[in-house]
Amino acid sequence: MAIDKNKIEQAIKLFLEGIGEDPNREGLRDTPKRVAKMWEEFESYREMNMTVFEEVGNYDEMVVVRDIQFYSLCEHHLLPFFGKAHVAYIPDKKVCGLSKIVRVVNKFSYRPQVQERLTAEIAEYLEKELQPKGVAVVMEAVHLCMAMRGVRNPEAITVTSKLTGRFLECQKTREEFLNLINSHKKI
């Protein structure tokens, strides 16, 4: 579904009026255009293509990209949630460029979302594209809908996970993944 910048601009202007602001005052005058441009930028992440390499030199051990910073928008309150994603897969004849894992996280993050679905969509996409021996995704996030409203608890962190294949079936593999994402040595 394509972004309709005119509708976004109209909606933001109405929103500003609805909360008692003057959308024509200096600080807000260009806000509808800025918001539409932001969503246009987010839309560009959805169009990414997965680059897959089949020549992996028989590599069949875990590939982990951890501490991927992500930002999303709670679909219930339209407030941000953000945090870190940890993604792993075990290749079966195919690997992807490491930056593509970050792009996959962005592909599904930059839209109104719930963390549970976001976690599953990342894992399912990697399963489909790479056909690996297993995928693991763990996401840790702060939700502003809980931090600044409602229960007003800014310290609460929500953790979700989706495991497939060997990560789900083999406790040793799962433990190795969890140890790797929880070791906080910086390179």
Helix and strand composition category: alpha+beta
Q: Quick one: how many beta strands?
A: 7
What is the arithmetic mean of pLDDT? 93
What is the terminal separation in angstroms? 40 Å
Low-confidence stretches: none
* Number of helical elements: 7
Strand content: 15-25%
Can you identify the CATH superfamily of the largest domain? GTP cyclohydrolase I, C-terminal domain/NADPH-dependent 7-cyano-7-deazaguanine reductase, N-terminal domain
Identify the overall geometry: elongated
CATH structural architecture of the largest domain: 2-Layer Sandwich
Top CATH class of the largest domain: Alpha Beta
Pathway: Cofactor biosynthesis; 7,8-dihydroneopterin triphosphate biosynthesis; 7,8-dihydroneopterin triphosphate from GTP: step 1/1
InterPro entries: GTP-CH-I_C/QueF, GTP-CH-I_N, GTP_CycHdrlase_I, GTP_CycHdrlase_I_CS, GTP_CycHdrlase_I_dom
Enzyme class: hydrolase
Subunit structure: Homopolymer.
